[in-house]
UniProtKB/TrEMBL annotation:
<dbReference type="InterPro" id="IPR000847">
    <property type="entry name" value="LysR_HTH_N"/>
</dbReference>
<protein>
    <submittedName>
        <fullName>LysR family transcriptional regulator</fullName>
    </submittedName>
</protein>
<dbReference type="Pfam" id="PF00126">
    <property type="entry name" value="HTH_1"/>
</dbReference>
<dbReference type="Pfam" id="PF03466">
    <property type="entry name" value="LysR_substrate"/>
</dbReference>
<dbReference type="GO" id="GO:0000976">
    <property type="term" value="F:transcription cis-regulatory region binding"/>
</dbReference>
<comment type="similarity">
    <text>Belongs to the LysR transcriptional regulatory family.</text>
</comment>
<dbReference type="InterPro" id="IPR036390">
    <property type="entry name" value="WH_DNA-bd_sf"/>
</dbReference>
<keyword id="KW-0805">Transcription regulation</keyword>
<keyword id="KW-0804">Transcription</keyword>
<dbReference type="InterPro" id="IPR036388">
    <property type="entry name" value="WH-like_DNA-bd_sf"/>
</dbReference>
<keyword id="KW-0238">DNA-binding</keyword>
<dbReference type="GO" id="GO:0003700">
    <property type="term" value="F:DNA-binding transcription factor activity"/>
</dbReference>
<dbReference type="InterPro" id="IPR005119">
    <property type="entry name" value="LysR_subst-bd"/>
</dbReference>
<feature type="domain" description="HTH lysR-type">
    <location>
        <begin position="1"/>
        <end position="58"/>
    </location>
</feature>
C-alpha cells in the first residue's frame, strides 16, 4: 500500500475537497483522483461520497481514517528513527505557560537542540486559555499547557501533574498550624488568570465551603513572576504548584500552609493538531513528555528523601 496515497486520502478527508488537497500537495486534481481511486481499489471499499458541491467520507472511509492516520504517522517516525536524526529540520511554534517555564522548559529546549539542531523554536508564553486559542487558529503548532483540549483533529499527550498548594510569606504568620479556609480567604488571594483552572478550583472550594466568593479579594495575573513577588512581599496568599516554587520554599521565602481545603492537581498536556505529513509536533511533543516525566520522578525522589530526613530529625 502506497503511503503517499494514504497521505492524499487524509488531506482530502481533512479539506473535504479534491482540488484543495491537490493544491496542498502541489499536484493536480487528476493525480489526487487517481490516487484515491487506486486506494479504493486496493481496499475494496468506497472511501468518499462525491457530488458537485462537496466530498464526504463514507462509513467505510470513516473507519479507515484513524488507521490511515496511524500508519502515516508511524511511517514518518520510522523514517526519522532509523535515519540521521539531525536531518529533521523546520520551524516549530510552541506555546507554553509560566508554570512550565519555571520548572523544566530549559531542559526540554536543551534536549530538542541537542537531538535536532536544525529545528528552530519560536516560543510564546501565555495562559493555557490563550495558547489553546492560538492552537485552534493555527498560530501555534504545539501547546504545552494545562489541558486537555477537546476539539476535532487535536491530539493530547499527558506530560505530568502538578500538585498545588496554598502558600504565603512567613511574615504573615499563617504557617505551622492547621487553617480553615475561612481564615485564608480573609487575606488577598493571588491566582492565575480569571477562567483558568487554578482560579476556578479556588472558586469551587469556596462554594463547597459555603463561602461567598464575591467577598474574597481575588487578584488575577497571567505572570507567575508578578504573583510570587507580591506574595513573597507579604501581600497575600497564593495557590501555586510546588514544582515552580520549590526553590522559594527551600529559601524560606514562601511557606506551605496547612489548609483544610485540598486543591486538585493541574494536569499538563502536550497538544497539537494532527496533520498528514507533519510529524515535527508529534516527535517534539514526545520529547516534552519524556523530559517532564524524568523531571517529575527526580522531584518526587528529592521530596521523599527530604520528608524522610525531616522525620528523622524530629525523632532526635
Amino acid at each position: 500500500m502506497n503511503i503517499r496515497f494514504l497521505e492524499t486520502f487524509l488531506w482530502v478527508a481533512r479539506l473535504k475537497s479534491f482540488s484543495s488537497a491537490a493544491e496542498k500537495l502541489c499536484t493536480t486534481q487528476a493525480a489526487v483522483s487517481n490516487r484515491i481511486a487506486t486506494l479504493e481499489r486496493d481496499l475494496g471499499v468506497r472511501l468518499f461520497e462525491r457530488d458537485l458541491r462537496s466530498v464526504s467520507l463514507t462509513p467505510q472511509g470513516e473507519r479507515a481514517l484513524a488507521q490511515a492516520e496511524t500508519i502515516v504517522r508511524l511511517a514518518e517516525e520510522l523514517r526519522h528513527g532509523i535515519g540521521d536524526t539531525h536531518r529533521l529540520r523546520g520551524r516549530l511554534m510552541i506555546g507554553t505557560i509560566d508554570s512550565i517555564v519555571y520548572a523544566w522548559l530549559p531542559k526540554f529546549l536543551e534536549a530538542v537542540k541537542t537531538a535536532y539542531p536544525d529545528v528552530d523554536i519560536d516560543l510564546t508564553v501565555d495562559t493555557s486559555l490563550n495558547i489553546a486559542r492560538l492552537l485552534q487558529e493555527g498560530q501555534v503548532d504545539l501547546g504545552l499547557i494545562v489541558g486537555p483540549l477537546v476539539a476535532p483533529d487535536f491530539r493530547n499527550i499527558e506530560l505530568c501533574s502538578y500538585d498545588c498548594h496554598w502558600v504565603a510569606s512567613p511574615s504573615l504568620g499563617l504557617h505551622g498550624r492547621a487553617l480553615a479556609l475561612e481564615e485564608v480567604v480573609i487575606h488577598p488571594l493571588f491566582a492565575y488568570s480569571k477562567g483558568s483552572q487554578p482560579h476556578q478550583n479556588v472558586l469551587r472550594l469556596m462554594e463547597t465551603a459555603g463561602l461567598d466568593s464575591s467577598v474574597a479579594r481575588i487578584f488575577n495575573s497571567n505572570s507567575l513572576a508578578t504573583i510570587t513577588r507580591l506574595v513573597r512581599d507579604g501581600m497575600g496568599v497564593a495557590v501555586l504548584p510546588m514544582a515552580v516554587i520549590r526553590e522559594m520554599v527551600d529559601r524560606e521565602e514562601l511557606v506551605v500552609l496547612e489548609v483544610d481545603a485540598a486543591l486538585p492537581p493541574l494536569h499538563l498536556h502536550a497538544i497539537y493538531r494532527e496533520q498528514p505529513g507533519s510529524t515535527l509536533p508529534s516527535i517534539i511533543s514526545r520529547m516534552a513528555a519524556d523530559v517532564a516525566s524524568r523531571e517529575t520522578r527526580a522531584t518526587e525522589t528529592r521530596d521523599t528523601a527530604s520528608r524522610q530526613l525531616d522525620g528523622a530529625l524530629r525523632k532526635i
